[in-house]
Each structure stands twice: as C-alpha cells, then as structure tokens.
Amino acid sequence: MIKLGFSLSVMAIGLLVVFFGLVVLIFATKGMSKLLQKAQKKEQPVTKAAQAPKPVAAPAPVVEEPSDDPQLIAVITAAIMAMEGASGNLVVRRVSRAGNAWARTGRGEILSSR
C-alpha cells in the first residue's frame, strides 16, 4: 500500500510540473507577441502616401509549345544510335509524346501492392 501511495504522489508531482511548465510557456509566448506588436507599431509611423503599394503587373507565364522539330528528332536519333552502337539501320517512323512517367509508375506500384 505504501508503494501505491508513493507512485500516486510521484505521478501527481510529475503532472503538476508539466502543467506548470506549459502555463509558463503560454505566458512567455503571449508576452513576446505583445512586445513584438509594440515594436512593430513604433516602426510603422509612415505617411499614408508611402503606405499604398503600387500595383505591379504580373509577368506573363512562359508556355513552351511542344514541337516536332526535325532537327531535335535528328539529334535524339543520333544520340540513341551512338548509345546503341547502331551503324545506320535505325529509322524513326513516328514521334509521339510519352505520358507522365511518374503517374504511370505510381499506378503500377499501387496495382502491384494489392
């Protein structure tokens, strides 16, 4: 019975210490936020004309259109031939865009995990 009483008292002291620490942290953060607000108010006495920001036009987004540039296709074909060691028997019959490889891989992993 003595051990149970001692255990309960240790638990109560631990809980009180934790809650006291939390209360101290709450008051410390509230005090710091009030100090920062006061410091910001002291720094902001600026004229009204300077406060109004000028509207800035957003830059137009750059969109690259996919193109089937024959020179690009020739360069890619030459790189493939160089990697494969082909001597000229490679013919490009059709050029098409591959889909999103990441999405395809993710779907494959999801299906294989079932």
Describe, in short, the structure shown.
By secondary structure, the chain is mainly α.
Share of helical residues: 55-70%
Oligomer: single chain
Helix/strand/pairing category: mainly alpha
Strand content: under 5%
Poorly predicted runs are none
The count of helical stretches stands at 4
General shape:
elongated
Taking Cα atoms only, what radius of gyration do you get, to the nearest Å?
Answer: 34 Å
Kindly report how far apart the N and C termini lie: 54 Å
Task: Round the mean pLDDT to the nearest integer and report it.
Answer: 82
Along the chain, the helix and strand elements come as HHHH
Report the strand count.
0
User: Main beta sheet, described?
Assistant: none
